[in-house]
Amino acid sequence: MPIAQVALPVAHATAFDYWLPEGLAIERGCLVRVRLATRKLVGVVTGIAHATAVARDKLSPIEDVVPVPRLPDDVLDVAQFVSDYYQEAPGLACALAVPPLPSRKSAPRAPEQAGEAPVAHVFNAAQRAAADAIAGAAGAFEVLLVNGVTGSGKTDVYLAAADAVLAAGRQVLLLVPEINLTPQLVARVRAARPGLSVATLHSALAPGERHAQWLAAASGDAKLVLGTRLAVFAPLPALGLVIVDEEHDASYKQQDNVRYHARDVAIWRARRRGVPVVLGSATPSLETWLAAREGRYRRLDLPARADPRARVPAVRLSGHRTSRAADGIGEALRAGIAARLARGEQSLVFVNRRGFAPSLVCAACKWEAQCPRCSARLTTHRVPPSLRCHHCGHAQTVPRACPSCGNVDLV
Questions:
Q1: Per-residue pLDDT at 186
Q2: Distances in Å between the alpha carbon of 14 and those of 50, 64, 88, 173, 397?
Q3: Beta-ladder partners of 277
Q4: What burial class does residue 80 get, using C-beta atoms within 10 Å of its C-beta: 0-12 exposed, 13-18 middle, 19+ buried?
Q5: Which of 45-49, 266-270, 319-323, 330-334 has the highest average model confidence (pLDDT)?
Q6: Which of 393, 397, 403, 394 is nearest to 368 (CA)?
Q7: What is 350-371 written as a DSSP string?
Q8: Is the pLDDT of residue 1 over 80?
Q9: Which residues are CB-neighbours of 375 under 8 A, at least 6 positions away?
Q10: What is the pLDDT of residues 316-360, one digit of tens each?
Q11: In sequence order, which residues have a C-beta less than 8 Å from that of residue 122 and are 6 or more positions away?
């Protein structure tokens, strides 16, 4: 009797065994509907066997197959990697690759295409060298770090490098850290590459829309798949290039449910598929920088702005601990702000914190000044001496001694 091993979205260490009814065509990667106790769940078939240690009368049948493309082997392998490396349940890891299944059956939506005129870009020498290096790495696994200053035209380099991959009939996966970045990047891609079929994948899409975009990626109709960390699990039958923009961004780390780092998963998937992966950043993460310095990643520098008219902003250090400082602002900065005000311009001042110290603590018993009206700590202000809550507005005088133990050594 054929047995299907099914990974379910539950916190369980192994897959569950179900028997296959006759006439039901099932293979590894298929999405199936099964029962687990009193619940109906959608699971992923991770294997087919002909024997099981579970008694026949304890097995339940697979009810039916979800009519969507099966998850390819590399996606299942990525899910297994996430399960093993991050110590997560296999079923929860596989669930990351499962699209939302709308209650009503809808026709697959074609990936959107642009109709605007292409925008011509004249590359400088560094951009052309970076694009050529990425295009030349096609067909084999390699990690390339595009280390470009802000405004150096990294996105144009990505698109130029992707052209050769797309021309060969392959797909490109482009990851961005934030959902808010996807609309503007999609608009830019469509303006630069009219006619290119683009699918977007992120958690803010409605279930039906996300399902349609997933189908476009899984069928190969979408040539460029652009999305947040969720898109790293998208089925891409003709994957030829992976790009992780702003690779240093902490948003690539999922901190709840199944924990993983999408940048590292993208690198692992590119290795599994034997394709190059590009990491782009103006401020690379320390681990990426170290890998490039040790020669494990190839570094491609973009040291200049793409627009030759652009200039890097001047940065000056202005000391505030001088005799002529007022309210923590030094004379040079005060004069600079005054000059902008005189010209009717604006100035933006970032302050690292409000108050003299973020808390008041007893050195003996570790008592800490807490706001009596909310759960925040009270901030210590020196002029005038007071404790203030920057959340609800509560204020009180600074105690002379610890209210808990009477110690006068308050830090």
A1: 87
A2: 18, 21, 11, 30, 59
A3: 143, 242
A4: middle
A5: 266-270
A6: 403
A7: --S-SSSBS--BBTTT--B-B-
A8: no
A9: none
A10: 888 777 777 777 788 889 999 999 999 999 999 888 778 889 999
A11: none
CB-count exposure of residue 384 (10 Å: 0-12, 13-18, 19+): exposed
Q: Phi-psi bin for 151: left (phi > 0), alpha (psi -120 to 50), beta? A: left
Can you give the pLDDT at residue 115? 44
pTM of the model as a whole:
0.77
**pLDDT-derived band of residue 105, with 50, 70 and 90 as boundaries?**
low
> Which ranges of 143-258 would DSSP assign to H, the alpha helix?
154-167, 181-192, 207-219
The token pair at 44 is 């992923």
Tell which phi-psi region holds residue 152, choosing left (phi > 0), alpha (psi between -120 and 50) or beta. Answer: alpha
Which residue has tokens 């005799």? 323
Distance in angstroms (rounded) separating the CA atoms of residues 29 and 45: 5
With 0-12 / 13-18 / 19 or more C-beta atoms within 10 angstroms meaning exposed / middle / buried, residue 47 is: middle
Residue in the structure block whose two tokens are 């797909």: 171
Contact between 368 and 359 under an 8 Å Cβ cutoff? The reply is: yes
Look-up: residue for tokens 């829309």? 209
Give the whole-angstrom CA distance, residue 2 versus residue 49: 6
Name the one residue in this structure whose structure tokens are 């990626």. 217
Omega before 276 cis (within 30°)?
no
Greatest C-alpha distance within the chain: 88
Q: Give whole-number Cα distances, 373 to 359, 382, 385, 404, in Å.
A: 16, 22, 20, 19
Whether the CB-CB separation of 314 and 306 falls below 8 Å is answered with no
Closest CA to 247 of 262, 268, 269, 227: 262
* Beta partners for residue 64, in sequence order: 33
**Is there a contact between 114 and 196 (Cβ–Cβ < 8 Å)?**
yes
Question: How far is residue 319 from each of residues 230, 290, 316, 325, 326, measured CA to CA in Å?
Answer: 45, 33, 10, 9, 12
* pLDDT in the model for residue 113: 57
Q: Please give the Cα distance from 189 to 236 (Å, whole number).
A: 19
Beta-carbon neighbour count of residue 290 at 10 Å?
12
Amino acid at 138: A
